[in-house]
Each structure stands twice: as C-alpha cells, then as structure tokens.
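User: Hi! Is it possible to get a structure for several chains at once, not just one? Here's what I have:
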Amino acid sequence: MVPGLTETAGPLERLITMKTAECEGIEETGALLAEACVARVESVEPIPGSHNVKAVVDAGPLGMKTVVCGAPNCRPGLLTAYVPLDKKVVQGVESDGMLASGAELGINRDHAGIVELGSLEGCAPDAAIEIDNKSITHRPDLWGHHGMAREVAAILGLELTDPARLDLLPQGPAAVTVRIEDFDLCPRYSALVFENVTVQPSPLWLQYRLTAIGLNPINNIVDMTNFVMAELAQPMHAFDADLLHGDTIFIRAAKPGEAFRALNGESYTLEASHLVIADSAGAIALAGVIGGGDSAISEKTTRVVLESANFQASSVRKTSSSLKLRTDASMRFEKAQDPVNTVRGLARAVELLREISPGIRLVGGLADEMREMTAPPAIELSLEWLERKMGRATEPSEVRRILRSLAFGVSEAQPGVFSVTVPSWRATKDVDIKDDLVEEVGRMVGYDSITPRAPLLPAAVPPGNAARRFQHDVRNLFVDNGFTEVYNYSFLSEEAARAFGLDPAAHIRVTNPIASNQELMRASLLPGIWKNITGNARHRESFRLFEIGLEIHRREQGLPEEIPHLVAALYDRQDGGIFELKRVAECLLPGARTVPAEARDYEHAARAAEIHWKGAVVGRLFELHPRMVDTGRAAILDLDLRLIESLSGERTKYTPIRRYPSSAFDLSVIAPLREQAGKLEGAIAGFAGPLLEAIQFVRQYSGPPLVEGTKSVSFRLTVGSPERTLSSEEIAAIRTTIIERMRDLGYELRV
Amino acid sequence: MLDESIQELASRCLARIAAAGSPEALEAVRVDAVGRKGALAEISKGMGKLTPEERKRIGQVLNAAKQQLEAALDARKQEFGDAALRARLDAEWVDLTLPAPGPRRGHLHPITRIQRELEDLFVSLGFTVLDGPEVETEYYNFDALNMPPDHPARDMQDTFWLDGGNLLRTHTSPVQVRGMEHLGPPLRMIAPGRVFRNESVDASHEHTFYQLEGMMIDRDVSVAHLLYFMKTLLTAIFQRDVTVRLRPGYFPFVEPGFELDIRCLICGGPGCPVCKHSGWVELLPCGLVNPNVLRISGIDPEKWGGFAFGLGLTRLVMMRYGIDDIRHLQGGDLRFLEQF
Ligand SMILES: [Zn+2]
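Assistant: Yes, the chains can be modeled jointly so their relative placement is included. Here is the combined structure:
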C-alpha cells in the first residue's frame, strides 16, 4: 500500500510511536522463510527403531538433499518446504537441513506434519509492529492496515495506493433483499451473493499474513473475511446461502428471549436491546459481534452471502459487553467505523475470492441499503489559532501538505484561514473541531519542534486550602510526637465492620468488589488501624501510628458524606499509653476535656471517653478491649478532623499582663477512689468565684492515713484581680467559701 | 612598738588564713582578726592614749593591715567557692551516650512526602490545591470529561461501581471539572488524591493508588506552556535537568493529547532494562483541555484554553525510593514505613 517504503521495522516503529500511536514492540515472523525453498520428496526410507524417516528431496536450486524427518505425512512426491541448516547426525543418519511444518515456518499453526504446498510465493521473513490498542481507541481507521499505511505514507512523504477497486462491484439487481428496521442502529448494510464456491485451505501467503497478526487460518472464505477486516478495518461475515431461509435479510432488534447459537458454539438468549441479522426463520448473526453457527461456512458450502455492514458503535459495545463477547468485529465497530467502507470491503473481497476460490461467480448485483449520508461540514482552521495552541508558527504550505497527506481536503477560504474537509473514515467520531486539526498538524510537524516557554501571568497568591493545610499540620504534630503515618484501603469486609459495631447494611456497597472481604466502603478508620496494630505487634513491643483518611457515610441521596478522620494508636506490650495519647490530643486541642463515656463493645469497659472541645464532641479516646488485642495494650484516639477544623482558627486576642501580683494556695479534697478529678476541679472552680485565675491538678494520693476506699486530690488555685492586690483576708475568704461549699457537697478537705 | 605588734599580728593572721582547711575555719580566722571584737579591734581600742599624730599614723597602719587581711580572706574564700563548684560539677557527671527519653520522631508516609513537595512547588507557581470526593458520580468521572456512556475509553478504566449508581473515581480528573465549575477561568489548580481501579493486586498493580491532577486555564495556553510547566515540575521532582518529549496519546478530555516521556534517568538514553531499551520512560499523560470539556464546565473555548496533566504519585514514589512492591504502600508495616 506504500510502494516506496524502505524503512525497516525498527525506525518505522519509532516514527509511528512519535507521530501516530504507541507501539508495543516488533514481532519478527517467518525467519526460516529467508532460506526456505520448495522441495519435492523423491524417496523415503524408514530408519530402524525410530518413527523418523530418511528422505531424499529435490530442493531445486539447492540440489538433492538427504534429511531426517519425523512428519507422518512425509511421502514421495510431496511438495514441501526445505530449510538449509547445518548438517547434523540424527539416529546415525546425516541430516542436511530440514523439512518444515507450517508452524515452524510461521505460516500457520499446523505442526502435525510438514507443510504441503504449491508455492512459497508471498512468504518471506517479515515483521509485525504491535500497536497499543488503547492509543487508537479514537481512530476507527487505524484498526485496519490500510489506515496505518496512510499514516506511514504521510510521515515519510510517500505515495499511498488503495487496495480496494470499486469497479469490481457488480451492477444490476441484487440477489438478496436487505431490510433495515432502524438506520440509527444499522446505518448501512451491503451484501453480495456468490456461487460455485470452493471451500478449501487458503493459499500459504494468506495463511501466513493472518498468522503473522495472530489470526488463525480456517478456510479460504473465512480467511478472506478476516483479511479484509485486518486490511480495511471493515468486519465482514460469510453465510452459507443454502442454509438461509428466504432471500431477505432483516436487520432488526432481537425478540426478547430469542435464542441464538453462535459460531463459537455458545448459545445466547437475546434481549430487545440486541441487534440481530435474521432470515425469515430467525437470527443468523449478532450484528457486529459474531455470526451464527447454523449458517456457517463448511466444506459443503457452494453458495455464499457475504455481508459488509456498518453498525452503531454504542449498540455493538452494549451488546458485546452485556453478553461478555468481545470479537475482532465488535472491537472495530465500537470505535465507530465508516459506513462508506462497506462497499470497499466487498470490492476487495471480489478480487480476493477470484484468486483463492477459482471458478467463483457473482450472483446478481450489489445489495446496499443505507441511510442518506451527508458530508460533515468543513472545519475552519486559522493559522493564528494553530499558533496560539501549539506555541509555534507553522508555514501555510506545511499545514496544507500535512493535512492533504492525511486525506483532508484543504482550501484557503481567506488568507491565513483554511477550510478543511474531513475524510469519511475520520469523520465518524474522531475529527470534528479545529482542535482535532491542531493535533494532526502538531504530531506531523513533531512536538519536539516546540520550545518550552513560560507564560506571562499576573503574580497572585493562589486561594488557600485551609482543610488540607490543617490536615498537614495535624500530620506534623503526630509525627513530631512519634507517630508514623499509615495508609489503609477504603474497603472493609462485613466482618470487620461488625467487629467495630457497625451495621454492614448501613455501608455503601461496592457492586463489583475485587474480593468479598472488600465490599464495603469504610465508615470508620478503626478496622484498618486495628489490622495495623495486630500486624505490627508481631514484630514490635511498642509503637505509635496514625492515619488520616476519609470515612464514607451513606446519605439519603446524592454523593455520600466523606468526613476526614484521624485515628492514632499507641501500642505497648506492657503499659497502657492512653494518657500519653491524651497529652498529644491536647496539643492539638488545647483546653479539651476528656469525658468518661459508656464503653462500646470493642472498647475497654473502664477506659473509654469522649473528647469535648469548644462545646462539641470531636472524638473518642479509649483503650481497645483486651479481646481485640491480646498481646498488649492499645490506646486509640479517633478525631473528626472536619469538625475540629471548623472550630479552629479563632483569632487570638491579646489581654494585658496583670499589674498586680496573684496569689496561689493548695487545697486537697478527700473523695471516693473512683471520683473523677475533673468533676472535683469543676466544682472547686465554680465555688472560687470570679477572682480565680487558674486551677491546676497537683497530685492525688491514697493510702494511710486516709480511710481505705478514699483518696486525696490536690489542686493549686491562683487568684488575683486586674485592679488591685488581693488582701490576705480576701484570699482567706475565697478559700473558706470553697471549703464550706465542698463540705456541703459531702467532701472533706485536708487543710 | 605598736607598729611591730600590728605587723606581727597581721603575719600571724595571714598564716592562719593560708592554713584554714574549710570555709568554717576561715570564718573563725576572720572573726578573730578583723571581727568587731577581733585582734585589730582590740588594738584600736588602746589608741586613745596616743598623741593625735601618733594616732593618725597608727590608724593608717591598722587600716592597711585590715585591708591586707580582708583581701587575703576574700581570695581564700573564692578558692573555697571555686573548689566547691568544681566538686559539684564533677559530681554531676552524666553518661551522654545514653538515649534520650521519650518517643522518637515518627514518619510521614512516602506518598504524603512527595505529595507535599509537589503541593509546595505548585503553590509557589501560583496554583491552588483542590480536593474532590473519592466517591464520584458518573457525570464527573466520565461524562463531563468527554466520555459519554458507551464511550470505548471507559473500558480503559476498570471501574468500581457502588450501589446507588455512583462510583469510585478512577482518576483525579473529575476535580478539573469541579475546579472549573467553582472557580471559573482563569484557573491554576492541582488535585492530589486517592483513585481506584478494579484490578487484581500484585507487586506492580494496585486497586488503590494516588494521582496528582494539574490544570491551567487562561487566555492563551499553548503546548509550549505545557512543556514549560512539565519541565519545571520534573526538574523539581528528580532534582536534576530532565529531557522530555511529547508524543501523541489519546485521552478524551484533552485535544491534542500527549504521552510525556522522560529520557531514562538510569541509562541516560542508550537503553537499559528500566526503559525497556528505548531510552525513554513514559511518565505522564497530558494535553490541551478539550473544548468540549471547557464548554461542559461553562467556559467558552473560543476565549479560554488550557492544559491538563495527570501525574501518578504512586509510581513516582516507587521510582524515587526504588520500591519494588507496590503493596507495601498500603500494607501498614512499620518496618517499611519507618524508612521514610
Ligand atoms: Zn534506560
């Protein structure tokens, strides 16, 4: 298709990668074909004690050769392929070269015996460049070799020849009638009828080409349809005409529940959303996906209906994904193929069939039903726009040359503005705006011709992201205090949710999870941290870790709520670290109160509290229940960072340093052992009145001489006034008031 | 006569000062010599009998002796003080090779580290850092990015679907759309975050990984500008000058779309196993924002243009630290995490 091509596969692969699509590698094919030649087996002699035979062959220009061969079909008179190799002795016989199977030569996958052939014409070592499918998702034309040839010709400035000769299409009334129910789903359906068909293996050149691109040669008719598909990106299908009912082909929606047996031997139950090709008896093909088993080509076939159609991309994609059936045809159709291409495919088929099925005859003219096709509007492309987008100028002549080499029609509507028409095979989905043309020109001039340039921009402070900054600050605080950051998955198992008292039904569920233990979206970070604790406890006696991540909670409608949480854990084989964790929490939340709370099922029954800060419950501090971690103690802090961030950030206001000295005195309260110091502190602070500056826990004590079951809790109170120095009488009065009021509450004070 | 006894007294006292073995003994000497009832005081009491001239002279002699003794006392006292301090310092020896109490500093996750580096870099270039939800709608994850239903590009991204019809974002690109909607043009933003693909996990594949999306929308944004920012970014990331190249790549939300490769940092170009012998390593997809995407987000593509890119943070972290198993990143093993 590119007659002037001289580049070898390596440089070509690099050019295609840089200008068209990503290549994944080069596969050398048919290496042995370099020296292979047709040879005739002259005589065959058994080798005693071996299934191998000693054969003498006439290798034409290479002369008579004696080889050892193990193929069951090695017989006198056979034309096969001889490959000269170094002489070696096999089972006492000197073997000068070898006779090769189709698989050894790379022609087909047959390794049951040596190849039986007429000629090796068209079989030479070659290379297949593998293209990454993902990089041509938008290019229906590149799903055929001719499309890639056009790219190569454009890249190298060479001429492109067209393998399809439309003059080969027959004239006159068609032998089949085509009825399209919905032209949206099937914009065009073309068909030809052939008779006097011979179904036989394809010539080796055809087998070789299909094998080289990973297709399996089957028979000449099927191979031809695959060849045209690979060459022109036009999927085709051949029906055995004698197995069809009636002479009308219907393209219609499947009937709900309609049964269909496909070529692959599988049976499918269809739905109304599936498009089928049908005869008067029922579905004969799944449109754009696969043919039917009941009308398949076989050795008995003598008449063929050849389909070359165009189907709506999304309909094919839906059908193929709902039936989990991806075929070479469906992969092409779902990229939005060109309806113009159907008859080109048929024309090419006519030419090929004449060669590979000698005596074949066309019956009637071309059947061709289609929706009216309108040319897409021309695209205006100004050179100024092109330069603005690329960041470099391009000569008008260069733009014109590039676009024309890719088969765009170019005229200069006004100076500096081109009017560009799009070839039909690029117009289905790929190119419809001027930005698409920027790409065409850009890739062909080469992006390496563009010099990086800093934009001119106003100097401005970008809007901040307070929530993210806050989270980074929290990370710093915890890392500074010895905690190491972990990342856990967002998925949970039902079991893990239940272990933390969470109802699996309340979670958002993944409908296609990787595994059944990853089917819930985490509504808590605790299960992940728990796993980290038990995992690391196997190697460490003591550690600190934390995670900042999103809790995901179901909402009545719309997107779920995603709440950033911090969960920090402090594990030690012996000591509980809950007070250390409380200290770090207070670094983040100055003035926070830890309020004992009823323990949850997974919490230590006597060591669980809520964290109160600025009037809100912002989190929990607890020790894990010993049943959850039996090797040591794990203290856990769980904070709602969104809430905390919303409460943070008050401006600090300065208060003048007091001019008059304050005074301090201590008080010790005798209380039952389990009385909360926080409660006592609150009560004392309340009784101290407005002159109290600060109250601080000093120590607590239990033991002699105190009564058993009691403790003494000491506080230091600082009192003062901004207006004057308090007299010793005033200070004594405050102290006395507190003592009396505490006694009213039933507490004795040690004075 | 009197002069002599003063001299004698002074030298006796000086000898006692020198011999004093403790601060207490020294104090006793001071009381005896220059105290109110000490020897010098006794002598001055007897001066009443002297003539005025004599009294004046002896007074001077006494004064000189007193000053001499007091200086000696002070010096001796200082010696005792110095010795006591030296003894105290010596007694306060500690073994400074012992470990300090308290916890060691913890460690940020390596992804956090690299993400912060990039956030700082982009903020310094005038970009704002945006967040988007991890659970996304089909609209933001696909439709608004020019991937309508049944678009074949959706197949490239194996998607986790959630009950209720939402999905886990397969890329950080939805934040582009949210950013355009909320902030409008001109706009410079990045969006680092967690993304999900329905893939089986092995040493090099994860279903949960991290990306950093970047976008700039302004009056005139060209491929040349994109190249400038990419080079700046990559030079900062790899802390050396990097050679980049753009080649065509298809992503529905950009047009033209590129794959950006960098010259292999291991071999520098001739080819090695890391670059699969090509001399180049594919690093990030990028491109000029597709006008359809701008339009969907309410921005006029005739007036505004932009570029966008997506950087794989997970892959970057693995490249930088030479991590050979992606599963470590979410494995929670401190033996791994403490290395960063
Ligand atoms: Zn390399």
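Chain A touches chain B through 88 residues (CB under 8 Å). Chain A has six domains: 9-29+125-156, 31-105, 166-370, 379-447, 466-647, 663-750.

User: Great, thank you!
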